[in-house]
Structures are given as structure tokens and as C-alpha cells.
Amino acid sequence: MKIAIVALCMLALVAASQAAPVTKPEADLCPICLQLMNEALDQLVNIILNVGVVGSCGDVCGKLPAKLEQVACDLVCDYVGITEFVKILQEVDPDAVYICQVLGGICPIHDNAKVDDVKLIVAPSSGQQGSTFSMHFSFNVVNATGAGEVALGIQPPNGEGFGDGQLVPGFPVGPIAISFRLQAKPSEQEPFSPGTYQVEAAVCNGECGATHPHTATLGTASASFVITQ
């Protein structure tokens, strides 16, 4: 599912026939697959429904509106074959990570993934409306993670929460640091009223909150910041 966000951005993350056996692609298709499914999954499902009998990857991919999406779709579809491509998209609930894992193992699965030393720091701790808050999320990867998500949720003092998420191919063993930035500029979507805002960050195997196999919340951390008048 593509995730909507209110003025919040993440900074600096890092051809086969239908009958042929799937082999590991020369290029790493996982990031390409994740981006494609995150941005165009609903479109692909609708295209398949409208086309009916699908004979080739071009029958599906060529109908995507953006050229880059067409190229990405062709790469993924050609790798697994049109029959498997259509089958998975029709059978699996919308979940970009899980789809890319079951599509010929394009994205890695590491069920023994483990992280520790999970921290979240918000700076500054308080500021006026319109201020920019930096949120630094860090953790140490003990066992490499599979494809998944880094997510951030913010709960205002009043009103509905909002957040952002970034799909990732996985993290290797070692320290990881990720930064989010929020400009607390009032808008129709979020007035950024004065008060305390609770923040929670999570790193997950699979999409955070999903129920598919190989999905787990590996670590969370929380913090807060205050918006003054």
C-alpha cells in the first residue's frame, strides 16, 4: 500500500519464458520490484482485470502510464514469467513486500532477523508552528533483515495520527541510522496545533502491521516533541 504523508519526508536510505526455471537475476531486482508494487500495484491489478486473457508481459506493463513504471514492470514480469506474474497479483492481498518475496524470490526472506539498541531522537524537542523537526532513528542489526519497512507514526495532541514509511530490500549486519524530517507548517490536513506530539518508529520484516508470512516487528522506539504557540 502506498503511504500518504503530511509534509514528512525520509532522507537518504539506502528475461525468462513461462516454462523456464527461475534463476537469480544478474541485477538486484528487489528495490525495483518494491518501488513498482508500492506505486503501481492497484493499477496493475486493474489492468489485469480489464485485459482478461493476458498473453505477454507487454499486454500488462505497456498499459502503465509512466515509462519508468513500464520498464520496471517488464523487468520483474520477464524474470518470473507472465503466468506467475498474473497469478501472484491476483491471489495475494495488496502487500508490496510479500509480493516481491513470492515472485520468484526477488526480495530476500530472513526469518531470523534481529535488531537491538533501537533509539529515536527528535530535535529540537520543542518549536513554534512552522518549525522543522528532525527525527533520528537508529538501530543495530544483529542478524541481517529481509525485505521490509521502516515506518514512522506521529500522534497529535488532538486529531488523527499520520506517518510515513519506506520499503527497504533489507539491512546488513551493523549499525543503521535513518533520518526523517517534519516541517510543522499548518495546512488543511494537519493544523499542527500547540501541544505534545508522540512519535513512534519501527523497523519490520515485511510491511509493518501486515499479517503475511515472514512479517514481524523487529524493533520500535518512541519519543515526543512539543509545538508551542
Automatic annotation (TrEMBL):
Residues 1-19 form the signal peptide. This is Countin-2. Keywords: Disulfide bond, Signal. It comes from Thecamonas trahens ATCC 50062. The lineage of its organism: Eukaryota, Apusozoa, Apusomonadida, Apusomonadidae, Thecamonas. It comes from the Eukaryota. Residues 26-111 form the Saposin B-type domain.
